[in-house]
Write a structure and sequence with these properties.
The chain has 21 helices and 2 strands. The chain is mainly α. It has one domain.
């Protein structure tokens, strides 16, 4: 009887690829319906040159037409090839391959975790993921694969690490102690919105530092608690291929492994020293990786024209290659050029399923983006806030929820805030809420929901790696992987909203030169 029930469930489970195909069809059909009824919205956007409102119209594009089909067929291959998570992941996996094949990861992780408590390892992983929001989206292609390996060599189910890492990366995406490149762009939109009432308004670079520190610590603790008390207890014990006995043998690290680790750390340190020197301005022959056409340091570092931004994926990959190569030399796991070459491709073995998932995810995201449904929804929210005179706690809660809901349909923070800021910032200022606090509410709101949408490009990396370590006889459904994130989303949303409300009531500075109230 048990077998029949299990078999029925297995047959009824919808594979993520089929779900993505269905979502493509739904997006095409909905775009056709909305376009047929003439769905469009006009909102006010601040002109950066005139500092005045200019009407901007957004209409839904129908893909349920011959023109739409032509777009899909002519752009699918291009969208897949140019899909950023694809190229970033493949390049990063080259570095992961040699680190894993040489034994560097196994030795390093064993040393780091063998005497550490499970909660401590989880908390450190979560905190690192949140802090890496400074690096932007690259953190997803580095930390999701790394979290799986961390838990695997730590003798735990890799899925737990992947779920926790993705939760930390998404729930912490709007949290950063220092101004990120995204925050810098958002800041310019915030100042544009403020200029309609106060053209001379300025915002400090460290205007968010105090509230961000509190939020990072609180969210890290909450995610760790949910991971250990909820997620870990609901995942079965992982069956490791290399273990046949019931008792787990303790990993033995000998002289060769220590020699390899020391060589790897020395090589990595020298590489990082050279790299760091080249992102420090003002020293002799330094700062070569910066874009000096920008004003703020973070923009010099992460602008589209900086070497650091354009080459960051390869820079990290080379660091991983150095770790793996020098460890292999010291530990004698890499003895010739064939060993080295084979190790580079180790992590790319068996990535066929991942590539297929990425293909359909890229197709769905490009289709949904082309429909303009996301910007259409956000523009309606902008008008809703702009046309109503909300004040105080009501305005704070509404802005928080609007940010959370709109992030599901338009994950890009910059695209959403460019639509919302022109209406939100002046309304908040009229209600006595500072522009800095308005941007903080917006950023905190998106933290709640960015991990709950397949429209987010890097969701597919999370999905693919959960499937990679899946030991069930059935595939994981897309909605099942989303369900894992719901407890994190609700808890993070509640914690961040409490922080916002308490900060507003107390009125202490949220950063240097910035308070919740004007």
């Amino acid at each position: 009887m048990f077998k029949k029930k299990f078999s029925f469930r297995e047959k009824m489970t919808l594979h993520p690829i089929m779900t993505l195909i269905i979502l493509c069809g739904v997006a095409i059909l909905v775009s056709g319906i909305l376009s047929f009824i003439g769905a469009q919205v006009t909102y006010n956007k601040v002109d950066p040159n005139l500092l005045e409102y200019t009407p901007t119209t957004i209409q839904v594009n129908s893909l349920f037409s011959l023109r739409g089909l032509k777009y899909i067929f002519s752009n699918t291959v291009l969208n897949f090839v140019s899909f950023t998570p694809l190229s970033s992941l493949i390049i990063i996996l080259i570095g992961f391959g040699i680190m894993e094949k040489s034994g560097f990861l196994k030795t390093a992780i064993t040393l780091l975790t063998k005497n550490a408590k499970k909660k401590t390892v989880t908390f450190v992983l979560v905190l690192i993921c949140i802090l890496l929001s400074l690096t932007g989206d690259l953190s997803y292609v580095v930390m999701i694969p790394l979290s799986g390996v961390l838990f695997k060599y730590g003798k735990r189910n890799p899925a737990i690490g992947i779920i926790a890492a993705f939760a930390a990366l998404t729930c912490g995406s709007g949290l950063s102690v220092f101004l990120t490149s995204i925050d810098s762009t958002l800041l310019s939109q915030t100042l544009l919105g403020a200029s309609t009432l106060d053209p001379g308004y300025t915002i400090s670079t460290f205007a968010f530092i105090f509230i961000m520190i509190a939020a990072i610590v609180a969210v890290a603790l909450v995610i760790t608690k949910i991971t250990e008390e909820y997620v870990a207890k609901r995942h079965s014990k992982y069956e490791f291929e290399e273990k046949q006995d019931e008792e787990v043998e303790e990993e033995v690290i000998g002289r060769k492994e220590y020699r390899g680790l020391i060589l790897a750390l020395i090589g990595g340190f020298i590489y990082l020293l050279i790299f760091i020197y080249n992102i420090i301005p003002g020293l002799p022959f330094s700062g070569n990786f910066l874009d000096y056409s920008q004003v703020h340091y973070i923009d010099k570092l992460f602008s589209y024209n900086s070497f650091f931004s354009n080459g960051f994926v390869f820079i990290i990959t080379m660091l991983f290659v150095i770790f793996g190569f020098f460890y292999g030399l010291g530990a004698k796991t890499i003895k010739n050029n064939k060993d080295f070459s084979d190790a580079l491709g180790h992590s790319l073995d068996g990535t066929g399923k991942i590539l297929v998932l990425i293909f359909f995810a890229a197709t769905f995201i490009s289709i949904f983006k082309q429909t303009n449904i996301g910007p259409y929804i956000v523009a309606n929210f902008s008008n809703f806030i702009g046309n109503n005179h909300f004040t105080g706690f009501t305005l704070i809660i509404i802005l928080f929820l609007v940010s959370a809901i709109s992030a599901i349909f338009l994950p890009s923070s910059i695209s959403r805030w460019s639509i919302l800021a022109g209406a939100v910032v002046p309304v908040c200022m009229n209600a006595g809420i500072s522009p800095e606090f308005s941007q903080t509410i917006f950023r905190f709101g998106e933290c709640m929901s960015i991990g709950l949408t397949p429209v987010f490009a890097y969701f597919v990396i999370y999905l693919a790696y959960l499937e990679k370590y899946n030991q069930k006889s059935r595939p994981l459904s897309l909605f099942e992987t989303l369900k894992y994130q719901i407890p994190y989303s609700l808890a993070t949303g509640a914690v961040l909203l409490v922080i916002i409300v308490l900060w507003y009531i107390i009125g202490v500075p949220i950063g240097i030169g910035a308070t919740p109230a004007l």
